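User: Could you write out the 3D structure of this protein bound to NDP? I've included everything you need below.
Assistant: Certainly. Input first, then the structure.
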Amino acid sequence: MSIPIFIITGVSGSGKTTIGQMLATHLACPFADADAFHPPENISKMSVGIALTDADRAGWLLALNQYIRQQKNGLVLACSALKQTYRDQLGQGVDEDSLHWIHLYGEMDLVRRRMVERKVHFMPESLLVSQFNTWEKPDSGLLIPISQTPEEILRQIISTMALPTQWGVVGLGVMGLNLARNFARRGFALSLYNRRLAGTEEKVAEKAVAQYPELQEAQAFESLPDFVQSLARPRKILLMVNAGTAVDQVFEALIPHLTLGDIVMDGGNSHYEDTQRRQAEAARHGLFFLGVGVSGGESGALNGPAIMCGGDAQAYAQVATGLETIAAKDTGGQACAALIGPGGAGHFVKMAHNGIEYAEMQLLAEVYSALRWDLGYTPDEVADTLAHWAEDGLQSYLLEITIAILRHREGSDWLLDKISDKAAHKGTGSWASIAASELGAPLTMMTEALFARFVAALRDNRQAMAAAYVTPHHQVVLDQQDLKQAYQLARWINHHQGFQFIQLASEQHDWQVNLSELARIWTNGCIIRSELMQQAREYLAESLDLLLHPGLRNAVTTFWPSLQRTVSALSYSSRAYPCLMSALAALNGSTTANAAAHLIQAQRDYFGAHLYERVDDPSGKKYHTHWI
Ligand code: NDP
C-alpha cells in the first residue's frame, strides 16, 4: 500500500475522532483531527451556535489539503467533510490509490445522545440539525453505521479494507481457539494459524472461522509467512501450542519472517527457564519474547482468564490493551492481567499457581475421602456439607466444581464412581517441587499433593498391596466442624507456602514481584480464585509473610487445635491424608523456635566434618568436633 491516507468523515458526535485514533494506533501512523485546523473565527462562530458557510470552510479545507499532501508516513484524518465538494477539495492532488474514505453515519437521536455525554467540545448540540441537513451521502468509500461499538467498527474497517490485523494466534487447540474467540468478541481483528498435518490436521484455522460466528472476520492461514505478513507491525503473536519442543519449533520457524520489534508471546505452560532462553534468542534478533501464564482452562480462555506476563516492560506496554481486554476483571473492575516482572517471572508464577492448585485439589480430595469413607456420607451428603461451607465463607472455584462433580449422575449412579482413580499430571507440579528444592523453599503441601498423584497413578501396585495387607481397622471419630477448620487452616498454609516460594524466587532473580498484585490477579479468572485469595490480597499488601499478618493470628490460633484433632483422628484411618498431615507438620515446624535440626548438624559434622554453628557464639563461626 503506497503511503495511505485514511479520512474518516461524519457529523460531529459520530465518533470519528475515537475511531480515527484507534485506526492510527493500529496502523502505527499519525493521527490528525480536522477540528484543530479551524481558524479562531470559525470556532467562535460554532461555539455560539452559528453554522459555518462554504466560504468559512474554504480556508480550512485548503489548509487540510496542504497538510494531507505533506504527509510522508501515512495519516488518519478525522474530518466532518459533510459535502461532496468538501471531500473533493480535501483530496485534490492526492494519489487516488492511496486515499481511503471511511464514512460514519447514524440516526440523529443517537448522535445527539452522544453529544450530550461528550464533555469538552466547542460544537454545541444545536448545530446538529444543520450538520445533518448539510450531509450528503457519499457514493464511494466505506459506509459504516455507528450503532456498533468502536472495536466492532475498527474490526469492520480492518477486514473490509484488508488492512493488517491486530493480533495473531498460533495453535488453535483448546486454549488457542477459545482465546481467539475471546479476542474477536472484544473487537480485535485477528489472523489465525494452525499447522497443517496432511490427513489429520487440515484447514484447522479455516474451519474455526467457518464454525464460530465471532471469528467470521478473522483471517485464516496454513502458511506461516502469509500469517506473519497479514499482521500490523509491531506484530503481536500469541503462541498457544504445547510446551516444550513445539514452542521452539514454532518460534524458530517464525523468526525469519519477523522484523525488528515484533512481539512473540508464549501463552502455554512453558518452563520459566525455557522462556528465559527464548527471550535471549529473541533479543539476538531484535525481537521480544514474553512468557505469558494463562489460567482459567477452556471457559476462562473464552470468557476471561487470569494472565501473568513476564518479560520486557516496553513490549508488555504494547500488548497490554489486548491482554487486559480479554482478561477476567476483579471486583473493582480492574483486569486480572499484568506484567509480573522481567524474564521468566510470568511463567514462574503460573507454575507456582499450578502448584497451589495441586494442593487445593488434594485437600478437597482428602476432605471428600474423610467424609465419604471414614464418616460414611454419600456423595450427595458430601456435596451438601461442602455447599454449607461455601455459604459460610469458604467459597472457591475448586470447591464449587467439586460440589457439582459430587452431584453429577449417570443414570442413577454417581459418575464419580465410574472414574478411574489413576491421577495424571502435566508437569507443572513437578517443576514447582524441583524449583522449590533448588530455592530452598519448603513447599511441602504442594509436593505431597504431587506425590499423592504419583501414588494414585501406581494403581496396579496399590491393588497388589491392598490384597497383600489388611490395614488395622479403627473407628475414626472426627468432628465435622474440626474438619472444616482444619481444611481452612491447611488452605492458608498452602497459600503461605506458595507465596513464600514466589517471594524467594523473586529475590533470587530480582524480579520485584508484587505479591499483593499477584493475589489480585488470582481473585478472578483462574482456577485458584476464592474468597481466601481476596483476603490474601489485602494481607500481602501489608506483610510478605501471610501467616505473620495480624489479621490471620486469630484464625490460626483457633483452627490449629482443630487441625491437630483432625490429623489425630485421621491417623486411625486406613486411607492417606498427606496434605492435611503435611499442613500440620508445616505449621508445627515453622513455629518451632528450637528445632531438632541441631542433631542433624551434629550428625553431618560427625560423618562428614561439615561443621556447625554454636548457639553460644553469635559470631557465626563454624566449629568441628572430633566425635570419636
Ligand atoms: P491442545 O493440545 O488442545 O492444542 C495444542 C495446539 O498446539 C494445537 O493447535 C496443535 O496443533 C499445536 N501444536 C502442537 N505441536 C505443534 C508443533 N510442533 N507445531 C505447531 N503447532 C503445534 O493444547 P491446549 O490448548 O490445551 O494447551 C496449549 C498450551 O496451553 C499448553 O502449554 C498447555 O499446558 C497450556 N494451558 C492449557 C490449559 C488447559 O486448560 N487446557 C490451561 C492453561 C494453559 P494440531 O492441532 O495441529 O495438533
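The domain at 5-161 is CATH 3.40.50.300 (Rossmann fold).
User: Perfect, thank you.
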